[in-house]
Amino acid sequence: MTRLLGLDVGDRRVGVAIADDTSGAVRPLGTLRRGTLEEDAQRLARLATEQRAGELVVGLPLDMGGGEGEQARRTRTWASEMTARTGLPVAWRDERLTTEAAEAVQPPLHRDRASGRPTRSAIRSRRVRVDRLAAARILQAELDARTREAPRQPAAEA
Asked: Which domains does the chain carry?
């Protein structure tokens, strides 16, 4: 199995997860801050090399009816640029509700004592955690789909 990098692409950040090539386990890696397309490609290529990943699995933000809107178009454009600049192939995975599922498992936000509002650092930290957990969910969905689609080997006759 090729190691896969799962990506949850946003306008400001990209959540990243990796699928381990021996166990098939998925783990969140981190979050990349978006820059220029060239900067994004350099960071992604470096990460893919460090993690020995040979393929990207990009979450496609479909609307609830399954259609593609403006965000899906921007994601496709970005991923196409990453493929052209890094040589890494892209697999697409529906990412509907991955962010909501990642947010649901987050602890309550730390609140400022004086105002009672969440602190800026707590909000930032949560967004970063949610992005990388959403990437892990995208990647897990891809692995599950590949397992279902894999041809079954016939049992050896005794």
From this structure: 3-149 (3.30.420.140)
3-state secondary structure the chain: CCEEEEEEECCCEEEEEEECCCCCCEEEEEEEECCCHHHHHHHHHHHHHHHCEEEEEEEECECCCCCECHHHHHHHHHHHHHHHHHCCCEEEEECCCHHHHHHHCCCCCCECCCCCCECHHHHHHHHHHHHHHHHHHHHHHHHHHHHHHCCCCCCCCC
pLDDT tens, N- to C-terminus, the chain (158 residues):
479 999 999 999 999 999 975 577 899 999 999 999 999 999 999 999 999 999 999 999 887 787 888 989 999 999 999 999 999 999 999 876 566 655 666 556 556 666 777 667 766 776 777 788 889 999 998 988 888 876 665 555 54
Q: Which residue has the tokens 């970063």?
A: 128
User: Measured in Å, how far apart are the chain's first and last C-alpha atoms?
Assistant: 29
Contact criterion met (CB below 8 Å) for 9 and 127: no
